């Protein structure tokens, strides 16, 4: 479906296609309509690449390779499941007319990513002759995360063609990038599937008010949906958001920890804390407990059960928490901004993804 055919809700302005393809559950969780084990969150995306850069600064080495590799495998697994193997076999044997298949899937994927706030996408060109010179090029304007866009294109190509892929990136104008995936042949490495966390539903006690026009949460009306540009922004603060799977972010952090050591969770928290303190965030965003609870649930981060905030410290309890390390860093950064102190943060997350956070002033 071309992006010009995507319709905003006349009541709240949210893309009706996005609402139709997702469920907002009473557990504070968003899931995909076709597979309710696949979780989604509306993440503030302008801190994604700075977060990855911040982790690199904290640990003293680049994590670009690990981020792209894990996110690439996550996208590959999803695309791989979208296309029947018999169709891919016929593609590889050139028994099907490739052009309508390639362009149809490309059009669908680019429209879907624009609806999710990933940026404005345009297909530039491709070649598929299976001779080592094949490529697939997209242009993206204002990507939500350049690292994740590169990974998503590589994973899409690998899922479609059962081939390994690397992605070159060139900035062709300010904020505009051409991403070229180059095919490099089949590998046994492609048979390894990334193990992502599946969501298992537990009833909660949060019922979001619904828009009479589209049925989505009315809290989404606080965002501006610029569908032609592939951008979602907060109306009050102008910060950008994107819909992504938290399982991939969590898998990135898990992979970094497995490869680089147990200091990684604290590095993620520290990078997020620094970003929050250097940006346009305010403690006012969490001081109203009910509003904060609604915003967390509408964005799919979980069900806030308890929040306490005072000079003596801050504590939060969130059921079904997503991207928990980022939440801990956010809480610590906001507390330090509010009271102009350094702090310590303690946290614990259960097998059921129930998160407990305690932030206290640091003794000097």
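^ Assign residues to that structure.
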């Amino acid at each position: 479906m071309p992006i010009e055919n995507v319709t905003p809700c006349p009541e709240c302005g949210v893309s009706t296609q996005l609402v139709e393809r997702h469920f907002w559950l009473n557990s504070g969780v968003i899931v995909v309509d076709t597979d309710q084990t696949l979780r989604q969150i509306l993440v503030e995306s302008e801190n994604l690449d700075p977060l990855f850069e911040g982790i690199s600064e904290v640990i003293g080495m680049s994590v670009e390779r690990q981020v792209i590799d894990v996110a690439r495998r996550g996208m590959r697994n999803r695309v791989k499941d979208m296309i029947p193997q018999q169709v891919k076999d016929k593609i590889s044997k050139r028994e099907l007319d490739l052009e309508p298949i390639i362009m149809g899937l490309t059009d669908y994927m680019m429209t879907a990513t624009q609806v999710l706030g990933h940026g404005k996408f345009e297909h530039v060109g491709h070649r598929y002759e299976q001779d080592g010179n094949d490529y697939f090029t997209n242009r993206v304007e204002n990507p939500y995360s350049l690292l994740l866009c590169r990974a998503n294109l590589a994973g899409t190509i690998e899922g479609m063609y059962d081939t390994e892929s690397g992605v070159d990136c060139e900035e062709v104008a300010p904020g505009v990038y051409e991403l070229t995936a180059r095919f490099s042949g089949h590998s046994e490495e492609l048979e390894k599937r990334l193990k992502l966390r599946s969501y298992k539903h537990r009833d909660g006690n949060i019922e979001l008010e619904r828009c009479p026009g589209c049925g989505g949460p009315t809290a989404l009306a606080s965002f501006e949906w610029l569908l032609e540009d592939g951008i979602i922004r907060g109306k009050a603060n102008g910060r950008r958001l994107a819909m992504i799977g938290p399982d991939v972010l969590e898998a990135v952090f898990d992979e970094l920890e497995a490869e680089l050591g147990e200091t990684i969770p604290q590095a993620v928290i520290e990078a997020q804390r620094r970003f929050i303190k250097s940006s346009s965030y305010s403690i006012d965003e969490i001081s109203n407990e009910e509003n904060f609870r609604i915003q967390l649930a509408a964005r799919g981060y979980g069900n806030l059960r308890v929040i306490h905030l005072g000079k003596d410290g801050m504590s939060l309890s969130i059921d079904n928490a997503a991207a928990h390390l980022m939440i801990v860093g956010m809480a610590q950064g906001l507390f330090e901004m509010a009271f102009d102190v350094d702090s310590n943060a303690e946290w614990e997350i259960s097998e059921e993804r129930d998160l407990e956070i305690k932030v206290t002033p640091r003794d000097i």
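The CA atoms of residues 56 and 63 lie 6 Å apart.
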